[in-house]
Each structure stands twice: as C-alpha cells, then as structure tokens.
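Lecture notes, unit on protein representations.

Consider one protein chain, 137 amino acids long.
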Amino acid sequence: MNKSCGYNVKVKINKPSRIIKDHGLDEDGKATEFLRDTVYRLYEPYVPRNQGNLYRQTTFPSAHEIKHIVPYGHAMYKGNKFKGASKPKGIKRKTSNESFKFTGAPKRGKEWDKRMMNDRGQEVCEEVEEFVRNGNC
C-alpha cells in the first residue's frame, strides 16, 4: 500500500510577459536592441551612399528603432526624387515618380533594410539566437 508522504509542493510560474521581460526579449529589451544594432550593421552596404551622411546621421529613439535624420532620408528610402523646388524648413516635400539612380546599385538602393533581410535574414536570426542562448540578455 502506498501512503502519502505528508507534504505538498507548490510551483509558482511567472506570467509569460514577465518571463519575456526578464530575459530581455520584450520590445525594449537587450535582445531587441541587439537585433536593431545587428540590422543596422549589416544593412550599411545596402544604404545609398554619396558622402555617407544618410547612414552616419542616424539616431536610435528606442531599442527597436533606427531613424535616419537627414532631410532626404525618406525619399532615398522610397527611391523617388522630390517634386519641384526645395521648400522652407518644416514643410514636407512630395516625391515624384522619377527614381533615383543609385551609385553602387544594385546592392545600394531603396528599402535597404528589406533587401538586406532578404539576402542576410538567416544570418541576423542566427546572431540574435546566439546572443540570447549565451545569456547576454
């Protein structure tokens, strides 16, 4: 006959959102920041480059954002030239249907993040996986 051992075991598990945050996997966690920095590093050869200002004049508003702060950044990202003459600061210019001819194309050009991920997305995933696996979060 089996008799009870006389004690109870209680297991308390954190909520998934807490586990994600504790391991740096949340939106602003260390893994996300590592992902952002990896993407930024790997897409440099894809960013249009005349003097290099588009790539260098960059801010990181959060762990999951990259912002190129040159006035022409959006037009370059979309790949279309501006319409008409320049406007005063603070007034947005519209883009035309005329495409830029990028020096260094076809590697350098519009939507550089998407093109880099198409070429090197597996590498990005592997680097982030290794970062998390090594406990860097």
